[in-house]
UniProtKB/TrEMBL annotation:
Keywords: Signal. This is EfeO-type cupredoxin-like domain-containing protein. Residues 12-115 form the EfeO-type cupredoxin-like domain. Residues 1-21 form the signal peptide. InterPro entries: Cupredoxin (IPR008972), EfeO_Cupredoxin (IPR028096).
Amino acid sequence: MRHFFALISVLCLGAALAACASPAPIAPGSAEWEVTLVDHSIRPAQLRVPANHLLSLTVKNEDPQAHTLYVLTRSYTSPWDETDRAAVMASLEVPAGASLLWQFTSPQAAGEYDVIAAPPLAEEGMVAVLLVVQPSEPLSP
């Protein structure tokens, strides 16, 4: 009986290590991008993405401070207010020096959606654009 429990323990440990070593598969209809936060800017400044797709953004914060990013359903207007807060479709807080995976579904409607850092950095230009295109359009301009 003791050998049985030892075997089960080894199998569970092996399965856990295998799960950690392999990246999660990307689901059909999803897309991946890398975004870097550096020098109080969002790079690239524009992401061209397909409509109504699961987006996987690896966000790397190279700044010495944490940043909170928001994707808005409308254009951002300064100063930040309750109208902006109500327009947030996705958000992520990225600690200084961290790299996080941010997943959310892109809007169904084609158009430009602002990606901003939490104010006051948005007013200082820490803004990018999520350019949503229909899936039949190319992602490269």
